[in-house]
């Protein structure tokens, strides 16, 4: 398997594809499902059949949020008697079934910057694969490597869904 291991927030690390910095908080795409890791430990594992939808929210760089906005959020949290917990604007979110519930997990942005195109294409790959009911494909590192390679060649975000659907049909 020839892997170019970085595609926006997606990275091939330790034999699996992960969303986020694998040395910090991240989401692992495993054969069984998605697992969220924080502080060096797995916090939750969700099986692929539970996922109805999925999406990524992230910025181009770790510093995507303004320092002033972060300060205001910290002050507001303090005034409300809460602790500010920042994710540097990076989050995976999903709608799950059995039981129906919304789920989200913060992940740490890599030190490197992502291009807007990479963010859009990585999100499209994950979103459309799960929407098609084929989430288990995301747990196959070879399939994800081939899909990432193919997504690099997709000329525009408008064609991302068709590209993912074509890869899913091809196997």
From TrEMBL:
Superkingdom field: Bacteria
Protein name: Uncharacterized protein
